[in-house]
Design a protein that fits this description.
Elements lengths: L16 E5 H17 L3 E2 L9 H10 L4 E3 L2 H7 L5 E4 L6 H8 L6 E6 L2 H13 L4 E6 L12 H12 L4 E7 L13 H20 L6 E4 L16 E2 L9 H5 L10 E9 L5 E4 L3 H4 L12 E3 L6 E5 L4 E4 L12 E6 L2 H5 L4 E6 L2 E6 L15
Parallel strand pairs: 1-16, 2-9, 3-4, 4-5, 5-6, 6-7, 7-8, 8-9
Antiparallel strand pairs: 1-10, 10-11, 10-15, 11-14, 12-15, 13-14, 16-17
Bound molecules: pyridoxal-5'-phosphate.
């Protein structure tokens, strides 16, 4: 696939720089929204992928019911455009709680967590602030990262939330991050997931705590979510941009790749390779799927992949192409994992028919770092 886009608006910009194909991002948003509409699912995209208010607006205009965030910073920034936020991460520590309680009162905040130790201080901070925070009990669906391991634990936590003034039990959440395989290989994983979700919904309902929300969804499993009965909303993040891993899993097509890092060839001195100015500090040194080599590939020449990365150098492997670039030539690179590449950028250049505009990534970073008086 050769790159048909008009890249001339990018000419004045120094590299390496992240480039967003706005038309592709809009199409990706519309496709996710349309899928969710057809299957009666609420679409709550995770903003950790893009960290941009402009991109969040695209998602909300396309039909997102609210946004998912991972950090207080993302919550604060996204509260400017969304009044329904899910923090899909346990907020531990007084500073984080204080920041969450400082969100505009118009924001309906829901938090996913898996312990009494997380629930107690959150409920107390909410009560003291005169707020009520929604609670989703996080369930381990197989990734083995966070989440309660039994329906009994979920019932106990849900009951505890239901009994506290500052918290309102709303349901459960899970993240099927263990199913990072092509759709054709998801069959048994989805069947296990369906049984697990059914068990949790059943146990909670039997205890009089029927979940109003069952929040799941990742990009690799997004288009199969309707096959897991009981799920009410999905939180995919990556599908707004996609990346080389998602393409490698067959969960997007090449024309759905909306994010690249524009880089310049700086050396061809060593035969069989070209070196670009995008290294690990622009692309992120993310290992690929077992089926793929390297740390990224060219958008227009996927047979050219990034064989090695140091901080400011990316080594392009030319063994499978007759193309021999010159020093000064520019290329667009698709990273293996887009979210961590985005997190390394100050801004993305939003490329559309109107030219290229720098969009700030306001959700990036974590500050302010503490809630006390400045040191
Ligand atoms: C809790 C949670 N929800 C949703 C997502 C989004 O999944 P994906 O990146 O596959 O779109 C992630 C990704 O890390 C996550 O950790």
């Amino acid at each position: 696939m050769r790159d048909a886009a008009d890249l001339s608006p990018l000419d004045p910009f120094e590299t390496p720089v992240a480039v967003l194909d706005v038309g592709r991002a809009r199409r990706n948003a519309d496709r996710a929204a349309d899928y969710c509409r057809r299957h009666g699912l609420a679409w709550r995209p995770h903003v950790k992928t893009h960290k941009s208010l402009e991109v969040a607006r695209i998602q909300l205009e396309a039909g997102a019911a609210g946004l998912t965030v991972a950090t207080p910073r993302e919550a604060e920034v996204m509260s400017a455009v969304a009044d329904d936020l899910l923090l899909a991460y346990p907020p531990i520590g007084p500073s984080k709680l204080q920041r969450l309680m400082g969100l505009p009162r118009t924001v309906r905040l829901t938090v996913g967590l898996d312990s009494e130790a997380a629930l107690g201080p959150l409920a107390e901070a909410s009560r003291a602030a005169g707020r009520q925070t929604g609670l989703l009990v996080e369930v381990d669906a197989g990734l083995g990262r966070v989440g309660v391991g039994t329906p009994e634990e979920a019932v106990a936590l849900a009951r505890s939330a239901a009994e506290r003034d500052g918290a309102a039990f709303r349901g459960i959440m899970f993240y099927p991050g263990h199913l990072r395989v092509p759709e054709s290989e998801q069959e048994s994983g989805l069947a296990d997931l369906s049984r697990l979700v059914d068990r949790y919904i059943g146990a909670l309902s039997d205890a009089g705590l029927e979940p109003e929300v069952v929040s799941g969804g990742s990009t690799p499993t997004l288009w199969q979510t309707h096959r897991v009965p009981g799920v009410t909303e999905v939180r995919p993040g990556t599908c707004i941009y996609n990346d080389r891993d998602i393409l490698g899993m067959g969960a997007c097509a090449p024309e759905d790749l909306a994010y690249t890092v524009l880089a310049t060839v700086v050396s061809t001195a060593v035969p069989g390779q070209a070196v670009v100015d995008a290294g690990s500090k622009a692309l992120a040194k993310e290992p690929p799927l077992p089926t793929l080599p390297g740390f990224g590939a060219l958008l227009a020449r996927p047979e050219v992949w990034v064989r090695a990365l140091s901080e400011e150098h990316g080594v392009l492997d030319l063994s499978e192409t007759a193309w021999r670039p010159s020093v000064g030539e520019r290329v667009r690179i698709v990273p293996n994992h887009v979210c961590v590449s985005v997190n390394l950028q100050d801004h993305v250049l939003a490329l559309s028919d109107g030219g290229a505009t720098a969009w700030r990534l306001d959700g990036r970073g974590r500050g302010p770092y503490h809630s006390g008086p400045s040191a």
